[in-house]
Write a structure and sequence with these properties.
With 440 residues, the chain is mainly beta. Helices cover 7% and strands 35% of the residues. The radius of gyration is 22 Å and the shape is flat.
Amino acid sequence: MTPLGPGTWRFSSFPNRLGFRLHCRILTALLVSLGLLAARAQTNRNPMADGGNGSGYDMAPETSAAVAAATMPRTSLSFDPGWRFFKGDAKGAEAAVFDDSAWRTLDLPHDWSIEGPFAKTNKTGGAGAFLPSGVGWYRKAFTLPASAAKQCVFVEFDGIMANSDVWINGHRLGHRPNGYVSFRYELTPQLKFEAGATNLLAVRADTSAQPASRWYSGAGIYRHVRLVTTDPVHFDDHATFISTPVIETNRAVIRVQTTVCNTSGQDREITVRARIQGPPHSAPDGRYACSGDSGLVTVRAGKTADVSFDVTLPWAPQLWDVTHPDLHTAVVQVNTAGQTLDEETLAFGIRDAKFTAEQGFVLNGRKVLLKGVCLHHDGGALGAAVPLSVWERRLKGLQELGVNAIRTSHNPVAPEFLDLCDRLGLLVMDEFFDCWTVGK
């Protein structure tokens, strides 16, 4: 296995960003933070599904640009279908009135660099497979129902390679240099909700600065995109964590920590409630379910409130392990006056992990040798936009060889890759970034 180096460590146990994820920036921080085994929220997603595109996300029923009215406290719709793409720079393409009718129509994820042509003169060089780099533009038109005007609307990108700029209806939302990090923008203030009004999302990605890496990085919106709608009172982005501070033979304590945002114009009294569910037939009553809540919490108008509480499982917990990755789920809600304002589904593993000077890595009380491999984020001839089924076949093959740990070389990977490792029972060293010759 490659020697351990700086990075973000994740010891995973579920097909989600939520699972057994142990984070740190350097190895020292890892040893200090072993008791903080946190699960991160990924909402309204079926982690076992492929969604028809290798993503694990439910696809929209049509590729139409229209978005259906929200019927749940939170909706997360695939925004992959129906984009326009142009290879090269296009002056003024951020404007809503720009004519993109001659552009290519495609669905995401999309890596335009892997399409070639190969040339020894390409600036990416041998490390970049002599494939092209440069600027690519993406545009997507969509409509929203009038009912969405009372909600908060966000766009989430799992990764854009690289140096991306994003606009909504001509308004610049921001710039993201790193091509591997997931991010989101709020669209609400610039959206049009009137009947027949069209909104235009534009993205410019630029990989011109080369050679940027010592491996193939890809180009464009090569990971999934989602449109998320929430109530004005909602969970903050990636703020909900599940940890297991107490694990005993006949019980376990599940700690729920989150942050609730109130973007409405008045103070709100809320309660955060969590229902814990787990593997079937693991509790005396044959179901694995219990719940708890925070009690009343006041969230001031325009402010946030941190919330933390414990839920006790009053029976022997089934533990996550590399040999049997048992999965648990927490359905966490923001409630007020009998109404559910927001809901997230988090998956996690109940487990105990630590490093000791005597035994090295210890999982659930037993020494586990990390038998790892290093994997880059591409899929060979498939480029950087890799279907989940390809990763599943590859990881299962590695497990047959005895592998139980993955080092993501050398950057954060797609969320569904971590999800898959969680489900399969693979430990993950999730590296943060590698600068090489061009800053990321």
